Amino acid sequence: MPGNWQRRGDEVFAALAGNERPVVLAIDELPILVDRLLRGSEGSVATEGVRAADAFLSWLRKNGQTHRDRVIVVLSGSVGLEPILRRAGLSAQANIFSPYDLKPWDGETAVACLGALAETYGLGLTAIVRNDMCRRLRCPIPHHVQLFFDCLHEHLRRTGRSVASLDDVEAAYRDDMLGARGHMDLDHYETRLKSALGNHGYRIALDLLTEAAVNRGLLGDDAIAVYREYFETRNTEAQGDIIPVEEVLRQLEHDGYLERSDEGFTFISGLLQDWWHARHGRHFVPIIQRRV
User: Fold this and answer.
1) What is the mean pLDDT of each run of 10 residues along the chain (292 residues)?
2) What are the C-alpha distances in Å from 250 to residues 196, 205, 207, 212, 258?
3) Contact status, residue 35 vs residue 195, Cβ threshold 8 Å
4) Distance CA 224, CA 277 (A)
5) What pTM does this model have?
């Protein structure tokens, strides 16, 4: 019932805390839940949404503190919670949680994983082939490593072979990873930005990421300055929440799309850079060229 969710939730926490041994309670996609509470049915953050999110987070914080030694709460999600709370002025509600940065594999681990997969499926993947696969990915996220292996495996199966060459790696990457198969497996990188940033923020993120993709992975500081001016002049026309360019960049950095470099921001993942270019870059004109 809408009116007694806190009492019901307290009972659940109390039951978990009464277990003989400590319990780990994992809550997946909490940032998306909080964002939906903030936006409500209108799609933009309003006072009522902030109150609803604040009430939920206060309740979660209270139970986390009350049952600290009996119920260990783990929050996870495909977008970051901290930027969402900061924009709503609710950052303090998450201060009982300690962030954990889950790193991608290193190159040695990724190459070893590809070798183990090849042995399991009876494929011939030389060290040169495996290293070339990791070079293309640049950032060996486990899901991407396994996706690349699946695409190469399927490519070899279609051609009736079991030993991969560098040409096979190129074909699997170009035709599958960056094609329809890759669209199905990587589309969440785009859709989750809409969830985290709303329509206006997503439009900014789309431009910033595509700018970087068509510029060999670099979003330069000069381009960022032009985008800042470009979107500031259009804030009065925006529907819904107004999110500054700097806040969008924080979200993109926090969620692992971009990282800071000497000249601006660069794509962390080679696969995501190439996929974004294939998806959005064909007819994209860089912002500085548009002003000429």
Assistant:
1) 82 95 93 84 75 94 94 87 85 85 92 98 97 97 96 95 97 92 82 81 94 96 94 66 87 92 96 95 88 62
2) 12, 11, 15, 15, 9
3) yes
4) 18
5) 0.81
